[in-house]
Specification:
Blueprint lengths: L2 H34 L7 H12 L18 H5 L17 H8 L7 H13 L5
Amino acid sequence: MKTGSWLKRNGKKGYRWTLYLMSGATALVVAACYGMSDTMGLTYSNSAQYIFADKCDSCHSGATPPAGYSTDSFAGVMGNGSDTEANVIAGDPNCTLLQKLNSDANHTLTTSETDELYDWIVSNNARQ
């Protein structure tokens, strides 16, 4: 049976059902995409700030933080520290902060925390 003939036989009712089905399918696709992108809302204020406060600020804050790198503010996290290269570069999976977290035993975060910082920096362009 051709779809067109079914629609002709059922008239407006057939078109209405077709629209309902298409609307339902669209809603399912949107819901699935929204569920897959649960990291898209990560910002410094709602995510990264709490990780830094819990794991980093005890050393990397105050007047003379190690390597001149402060994690107690957005400006500090995005800053250079004691060298000329920014520690966080929005969208860069190879930025200094991520490299340091992956290679230094003194900076221990859980896998979940490291993944969240990665998503904030790379997927969300280190939004404030």
